[in-house]
Amino acid sequence: MIGVVTTMGGIDLPALYRPVFAEQAPELDLRTPDEVTDPAEVAFVFTFRPPPEAFAGMVNLRAVFSAGAGTDAILACPSLPEGVPVHRVEDPDQALQMAGHAAFHVHWHHRNMARYVAQQARGEWSRVVSGLSPTHKRVGVLGFGHMGRAIAKGLMALGYPVAGYSRRALDPPEPGVRHFHGEGLDAFLDRTDILVNVLPLTDRTRGLIDAGFLRRLPEGAALIHMGRGGQVVESDLIGALDAGRLSGASLDVFETEPLPPDHPLWRHPGVLCTPHVASIPEPAFVVRAIRTRMLSLP
Ligand SMILES: NC(=O)c1ccc[n+]([C@@H]2O[C@H](COP(=O)([O-])OP(=O)(O)OC[C@H]3O[C@@H](n4cnc5c(N)ncnc54)[C@H](OP(=O)(O)O)[C@@H]3O)[C@@H](O)[C@H]2O)c1
Question: Given Cys at both, which of 113, 160, 163, 270 links 241, Cβ 3.0 to 4.6 Å?
């Protein structure tokens, strides 16, 4: 069975995955797009941000697999044939990676670690000794699915008061989490000192986190953005930071990725940037899941 793998914004997926496919799924012949002579032979595609013509001529395509947790860019691809299922692989390890990333950045903002990084550069010993208890910072997790739940559990284990928000009531509920839904967004934002965004990118979440949205957070709140770039209006975020309305931001995803070298976010003193690395699924887990699904097709 022939499959096509594309590159993924700075990650060489073919180099990363081909040895794993060869070892764990020898029935699946994974090729790069330029190695395919007849697109009609392609049974599956493994991709994250496919180029517009990625699926052209794939008239016998059976399935598409996302190399990440989101499928937004695949579903938006104009050449995706209608009716072909698009799968994402829910790697439990990936949710733990997200939880670790969130915990680091919550701690970074709560304990003002940027201050100590600056002090170290000056060789300065100066301590802030109040407000260290996690009970002083109310964390809000925006988007409460697979990733949101794992993040909330990790933060609760560290002692932070955690709330979550999604459109619908939680089923099942998450013990210990105060969950808001539907019309409860204002109440959720109003009690959130550190907002962790893990929303999927949809028509409703694109541009959602703009100046008006940020104003609904308490003065001095911090943003940890781990969802998708298109959700935060970056110029509004910079405006809120410059005005002191927000105390800081940790950004893992950006409107344009890779973030251009001259982008102001790279050098903003209140911002900590990471290059979309909050979590990366484990190749062995992903390949096993793809093999199981492809070999079970009738
Ligand atoms: N930075 C990274 O490395 C990285 C890695 C993995 C994932 N992510 C991001 O995390 C996202 C979430 O992943 P997941 O596995 O947790 O997805 P998921 O299990 O599908 O959960 C999505 C959550 O968002 C809520 N939601 C959807 N639309 C909403 C809206 N308009 N307003 C409020 N809540 C909304 C959903 O609940 P309702 O349907 O009830 O609203 C659900 O709670 C991914 O789509 C991706 O953008 C980033």
Answer: 270
Enzyme catalytic residues: 228, 276
Q: Which overall architecture, per CATH, does domain 92-273 show?
A: 3-Layer(aba) Sandwich (3.40)
CB proximity list for 66: less than 8 A, separation 6 or greater: 47, 48, 74, 86, 87, 88, 89
User: Do residues 255 and 230 make contact, with C-beta atoms less than 8 angstroms apart?
Assistant: yes
Determine the distance separating the centroid of ligand 1 and the alpha carbon of 146, expressed in angstroms.
Answer: 8
Residue 250 DSSP SS3: strand
Does the structure show a pLDDT above 70 at 129? Answer: yes
pLDDT at 227: 97
Q: Which residues 6+ apart lie within 8 Å of 215 measured at CB?
A: 240, 245
288's enclosing H/E stretch is helix 283-295
Nearest CA residue ID for atom 15, ligand 1:
146
* pTM, entire model: 0.91
Helices marked H in 183-282: 185-190, 211-215, 234-242, 264-267
